[in-house]
Amino acid sequence: MSPFTEQTRETDDPQDSPKRLILVTGASGYVGGRLVRALLGQNMRVRVFVRDPQKIAGLAWVDSVEVAVGDANDVVATAEALRGVHTVFYLLHSINAATHFEKVEEQMAATFAHAARLSNVSQIVYLGGIANDARQSQHLESRANTGKRLGFGVVPVLELRAGIIIGSGSASFEMVRHITHRLPVMITPKWVTNRIQPIAIRDVLYYLSQAAKLPQPVSGIFDIGGPEVLTYEMLMKKFAHVAGLRKRTIIKIPVLTPGFSSLWIGLVTPVPTSLAKPLVGSLINEVVADPSKSIAAIIPPPPEGLLPISTAFSLALEQVSSHLVQTRWSDAGLYMPPWQKTQGDPAWSGTAEYYDERVVETDATLESLWLAVEKIGGAHGWYGSDLLWWIRGFMDRFIGGVGLRRGRRDPDFLRQGESLDFWRVEVLKRHEQLTLIAEMILPGKAWLNFKIDEVKIDGRVARRLTQRATFQPKGLGGHLYWAAVFPFHGFIFPTMAKNIAKEAERLDALDNSR
Fold first, then answer.
1. Side-chain-facing half-sphere of 40: CA atoms under 13 Å
2. Contact predicate 374/416, CB 8 Å
């Protein structure tokens, strides 16, 4: 077993680094959230730039950083966030934000470069993707163009390009893990023979945190890769061996298109088809670091060496099984399905709203009732009617949504802003309120809210749980949707509320028996 965790490295003495102010964008995302933690662990001054501070409200480091709120597309707000900053980490990605995400990303990068100049930032550090192949997918081309846009400004840009990042909660790891677990025999496209050079998240964080301590600003493109070059086929077989699975059989055929492959990945992994499509499109490329772009001259390799992929897999699996995953690919932002984005009633028509409200009372303690509410979803299920939830999740994945397979980061405890099956935690007030906003494909917006109050019943104090499902339809399709699913609510929601109360009483009894 490695003496280090998945996310920590031995580094130079942080006291050797000047007390620069470091700004991290994308702090609610997979890499950004871990980078903040790594920088703080080296006693650096950190500011984060977020659109919604509630997205980071539940993170352990939030009280240790400065928080700047604004939109990266707004040059004034961005320049204000960058005021006094020495080094900024540009970790913004719009792959889920729009159909033409590459245009969104280029414009945002251009705005950011301009704001950095206005605020006299000394160094921009950008994490992109290795793009040395003659053929470039839309995804990798967009990553490269983002670096170019940042570089058009006067502020030096250090662009670190990585391939597949292996770590608990990364999209690449989740795709490999679920495909390999679920498919002992795989029929795959010929691109599984393409060469790749994956890198452990721990090594990515090492290079990024070291970039914050460079004595002088640096401009240039540098590839960072792990110690092994292998194929996608070898990667999946290596994972199977590490995970203790039986040998996987891979049959390669030339007719599976990236589009069809992304649909298949959307069905068998937690990654939705909309996100899988640009990622799978990149599989046509060989993603191998170019020795002429080595970062070694600027940042030496980690003292103990780069992490072998088998070790990276082992550490990631250990984090998952121990429920210690710090960030996940799904934490980055609210997933807005195309249908939901394009539907809409006229602004003057007002907002219609349907709801289903259930109220139950229980003698269980406030603590037990909250614990029962907070552990909803994931492996625990949805307190009854699980077949109906499974069918709804399958339907969502079939049409390109996120479905239920994202599960939970932790089986019992939630934090604000994180994903939960096909919901996201919008409000989390412990012992008071949990509000989930739907991220399944819907012709409208939906919320599921749980509120706990104390009430007097026949002279005794009891707890009351108010469970409310709210739906705001968009267009005629939204109204028809509510009418279609309304009969099923008579099975789902009363059972859910009653079973939450029963679970709270069970937890109470268990606690009293100890």
1. 18
2. no
CATH entry, 338-512, from 3.10.100.10, 3.40.50.880, 3.30.530.20, 3.40.50.970:
3.30.530.20
pLDDT tier at 497 (50, 70, 90 boundaries)? very high
Q: What is the DSSP string of 385-424?
A: -HHHHHHHHHHHHHTTS--STT--SSSS---TT-EETTEE
Assess contact for 120 and 155: CB atoms under 8 A: no
What is the SS3 string spanning 452-497? EEEEEECCEEEEEEEEEEEEEECHHHHHHHHHHHHHHHHHHHHHHH
Strand segments, DSSP code E, in 163-242 are 165-166, 185-189, 195-196, 199-200, 220-224, 230-231
Chain centre distance of CA 136: 25
What are the beta bridge partners of residue 161?
Answer: 128, 223
Type of residue at 109:
A
* DSSP tag of 29: S
What per-residue confidence (pLDDT) applies to 278?
63
Of 88, 76, 77, 100, the closest CA to residue 20 belongs to: 88
Copy the structure tokens of residue 455: 């009430």
Neighbours of 310 (CB within 10 A): 13
Average pLDDT, the chain: 84
Which superfamily, per CATH, for 14-331? Answer: NAD(P)-binding Rossmann-like Domain (3.40.50.720)
- Is residue 342 scored above 60 in pLDDT? no
- Domain ranges (residues) in the chain: 14-331, 338-512
Beta strands in 235-289 (DSSP E): 249-253
